[in-house]
């Protein structure tokens, strides 16, 4: 289930990768024009699929920690001394150097105008920019905690430090399950989740029909 895509998700994933037209030009519900490649769909702040994608990705990360034998809590309160910002999750036991680890997830559109040039020069460039922004956002997090941004591009690439974290989680899961491919499975689950939601976001922007003749 976790590593399967339906036909529409595959169509959108291939179209994004090859720069193909995904839809007829139309007006998004937010009022913006969506071109034939559908790119506005993946950055529209009013798309309901954005929040669902965020919650699904964070839940996947939290469940992966749990599968590795690391208890966690999502959206912990009171970790910042100044502004009350809440990361997406926290390990309830020390992760490294005697400190629990906090994480925050985000998905960034690789093909957005502000990222496409950097992404064309280096794979993962957009994810690294998004990860840096998360680090700045939580720069004043209490020093008792470690912080790790998990930034995923719409084409499935993660920032380098998140890759390292997921490898460590995957190895711990392998110890528990005896399955040596858990690292690969974890990366694949994240990539497949993002591709599924790319199709959902595209459909979020399409005009609705009222069923009238």
Task: Write up what this structure looks like.
The chain is an alpha+beta fold. It has a domain at 54-192: Trna Endonuclease, Chain: A, domain 1 (3-Layer(aba) Sandwich), CATH 3.40.1350. It is built from six helices and six strands. The strands form two sheets. The chain has a four-stranded mixed beta sheet with strand order 3-4-5-6, with helices on both faces. It has a two-stranded antiparallel ribbon with strand order 1-2. The chain is globular and about 55 Å long. The mean pLDDT is 91.
Oligomer: single chain
Q: Order of strands in the sheet with the most strands? A: 3-4-5-6
Series of H and E elements: HEEHEEEHHEHH
Number of strands: 6
Tell me, what is the CATH class of the domain at 54-192?
Alpha Beta
Topology:
Layout: H1 7-18, E1 26-27, E2 33-34, H2 48-67, E3 72-74, E4 89-91, E5 101-108, H3 116-121, H4 125-137, E6 146-153, H5 160-177, H6 182-204
Parallel strand pairs: 5-6
Antiparallel strand pairs: 1-2, 3-4, 4-5
